[in-house]
UniProtKB/TrEMBL annotation:
Keywords per UniProt: Membrane, Transmembrane, Transmembrane helix
Pfam family, one: Ammonium_transp
Subcellular location: Membrane
Residue ranges crossing the lipid bilayer per the database entry: 24-51, 72-88, 116-141
Recorded GO MF terms: ammonium channel activity
Taxonomic superkingdom: Eukaryota
One Gene Ontology CC term in the entry: membrane
Sequence ranges assigned to domain Ammonium transporter AmtB-like in this UniProt record: 26-168
InterPro entries found in the cross-reference section: Ammonium/urea_transptr (IPR029020), NH4_transpt_AmtB-like_dom (IPR024041)
Protein known as: Ammonium transporter AmtB-like domain, ammonium/urea transporter
Main subcellular location: membrane
Membrane topology: Multi-pass membrane protein
Amino acid sequence: MIGLLLSLLRVLHPDLLLNERSLWITAITVGCSVVEPWAAIICGCVAACMLTRCNKLAEKYKYDDPLEAAQLHGGCGAWGIIFTALFAKEKYANKVYPGKPGRPYGLFMGGGWKLLGAHVVQILVIFGFVSATMGPLFFILHKLKLLRISPEDETAGMDMTRHGGFAYVYHDEDGIPMKKIEPASSS
């Protein structure tokens, strides 16, 4: 519901409710075994704000991700990693990882900076790995003109131009169903 409330500040996007369920899961999965339930609620609320902010950045930099996958998994996933480094409780960390006394735990729980430092390095490694592996792939797809569709297909919508029908039933003002649009030239 946090995501829905945030979307009301701009434009109502019902699909945000579906992404919100995913963002809570994405963010809390990292530390679900080592945090208190009250902290998990904080994690989800901040993750909703994080997704909204990541979406604004995607719009600003014209990053084309209609499913918000990078924003959701990258932004909210990174927040989940940082969150765990802040709120991991010593009692739970020792229970989940027995036999290792002195294991670092959350900064806000009195555990010091060690876990936060390790998690920042983890985020940098993940982003570095994804950039190093996916960057060349997207560069090649871009050069082969396989990454984007034609502007005409983009405007008309791929449901009609590539898949032969609407994903949803659409009608014009008079209640007449919209007609099929033929595909533009292959791109």
